[in-house]
Amino acid sequence: MSSTETPTTEPTTPVEQHKEHPTPRQYVNIAVVLAVLTALEVSTYFFDFGVIAIPLLVILMAVKFVYVAGFFMHLKYDVKIYSRMMYSGLFLALGLYSFAVLVILFDSAPSL
Amino acid sequence: MSAEVHTTTLGIDHRKLGIWTFLGSEFLFFGAFISAYLLYIDTTANAPGVEIFDIPFTSISSFVLLMSSLTMVLAHHAHTRNDMRRMRLWILATAGQGAVFLGGQVFEFTVFYREGLALSSSPFASSFFVLTGFHGIHVFVGVLLLMSVYTLSLTGKIKPGQDVKTEMIGLYWHFVDIIWVIIFTVVYLIPEIAVG
After folding, report:
1. Which residue stretches of A1-112 are H helix?
2. What is the pLDDT at residue B187?
3. What ipTM score was computed for the predicted complex, to two decimals?
4. Is A8 part of a structural domain of the chain?
């Protein structure tokens, strides 16, 4: 097969008329930013960042998450319902962890 | 035959809504395992704990998986431009990086096992292997899907203009990457730093 194959048009729905996606150059720039953020994350293992190390790692993780979801998964450009589907799953997962921690805290609390 | 778009009552493509619903549920799936890992992180039962992690090695694996998201999105972009040759090239590159990541995980698990960290060694070990093992299975499924797209594209079953198919596989692949972004920080880096 070559690049001259005949296109088979797959129409998009009216609601899905979304904004223009990034160009390959912009994708590469985003990947460079992600690589730099990863290098910064790994540097916390080799250098002592003191008390800011863990908050810094959480922030870097969140930024990388938003970059991949927003640009590579096109959430920044697609209809909002897709973002809601993903973030509802994420927040339910965080809620599950918080609930589990609460149960353990109450379970291990000294009895009155 | 021209593919007909299937819309939901929301007016959006049901295939994309379906994959996003699936990915939303996958967050809960991995959320449960990450929660279990964090809750059992101190229960090592005299077996090795987080100090066994080889951060430089895992960093390279993480970097490879992160860059596979770039090649995946470039494959989708090439498909939207009806450049099937380039699309297949990027799909192969993505699958290759996924295979490198999987090889790294197999190597890591083998080293851990030889150093005394087996699936049943401790609650920490069980939660670690189940979490990262399930992620590895997701990567493996992703590689199979990518190779399917490659083969179907070669045989003309996936045509130019049908880029939603590449996009859906791409969404799954980016999800696998995004979960590893969380695992790398929460499972590997933060506990290592906390232990000192």
Report:
1. 24-46, 53-67, 80-108
2. 95
3. 0.90
4. no
